[in-house]
Design goal:
- With 290 residues, this protein is of the alpha/beta class.
- The protein has a domain of 189 residues.
- Helices cover 49% and strands 16% of the residues.
- It starts with a helix and ends in a 23-residue tail after the last helix.
């Protein structure tokens, strides 16, 4: 089955994005009705994070999220098969020269990359210019695992670390002046996490970002990939390096990260990775949410 999926992605990647995008949206609309457990997770997350929205508006948002998720699944074939010239044409980077100036100055950089649906193509586009470091989670399906690894390492000299590798490996990558494409906004359990608000709800949030920045002498640069409608492509938005980060309080640093994330989600709420059970780890004594 996985080989059929890879073959399908290879076939579809030849299509113009203006044709591929509606096919992906159609797949997403179908998945909304087929994958009931994930549909319930999305509705639960949206109800918790946007309680002010009417129910019909949250339903519309959930369906749009699945439509965009379907797009991101099919357009992953571009990461695996499209030539560098096409990826550069499809994905525009705002702030690319700023990042290049930091690299030229030998400044370690952490790219704070939240889980928006366009992050794979955003990462692939950055890898066409920069030798980066990122964390790679091995997949149980060996065929999919091989192609995911290929997609993330096919350009330049990318350093892919495994989850569970020591923090030393991350620091070493930073010291080599490889921008660290870092995704710290998922619920990875209580270890190395603090309970800080996310849309007003206590959420187990990794505290590694400020610790990595301090140990690696790195600046934090926000990195958000935005999917554009139809065949318009993607935009990687690189913000200015954060000032006064890390600060004296680890908890305040993690709160700052979540506040930044909330702000960006509000600009494109359907594009955040709502299928993840963001609130599965609860503070002691609190009931499970999912």
């Amino acid at each position: 089955m996985s080989r059929i999926i890879v073959a399908l992605l290879w076939l579809l990647h030849w299509l113009p994005l203006s044709v591929q995008a509606p096919i992906g949206r159609g797949l997403g609309h179908l998945l909304y009705w087929i994958i009931a457990p994930r549909r319930r997770v999305v509705h639960t997350n949206l109800r918790l994070c946007f309680p002010q929205l009417p129910e019909n508006e949250r339903t519309r948002l959930a369906k749009e999220h699945f439509a965009l998720a379907g797009r991101s699944l099919l357009e992953r074939g571009l990461c695996w098969f499209a030539p560098e010239s096409r990826i550069r044409a499809l994905v525009r980077v705002e702030g690319e020269e700023m990042l290049q100036s930091l690299v030229d100055a030998r400044q370690p950089v952490i790219l704070l990359t939240p889980h928006f649906l366009g992050l794979d193509l955003g990462g692939t586009r950055l890898s066409t210019r920069f030798d980066c470091v990122s964390i790679y989670a091995r997949q149980r399906d060996k065929v999919i695992d091989r192609w995911l690894y290929h997609g993330r390492s096919r350009f330049g000299s990318q350093l892919l670390l495994q989850r569970g590798d020591s923090i030393r490996a991350s620091i070493k990558g930073l010291k080599e002046i490889r921008p660290f494409y870092y995704l710290p906004d998922m619920d990875n359990g209580i270890e190395d996490s603090l309970f800080v608000p996310f849309f007003g709800i206590p959420a187990a949030t990794l505290s590694a970002l400020p610790r990595l920045a301090r140990l690696g002498g790195a600046v934090v640069v926000p990195c958000v990939t935005r999917m554009l409608p139809g065949g318009q492509g993607y935009v990687v938005e690189l913000g200015e390096p954060w000032k006064d980060f890390p600060g004296p309080s680890l908890e305040e640093d993690v709160r700052r990260m979540n506040a930044f994330l909330e702000e960006r989600i509000r600009t494109m709420p359907a594009q955040y990775y709502w299928v993840h059970r963001r609130f599965k780890t609860r503070p002691p004594g609190e009931a499970k949410i999912y």
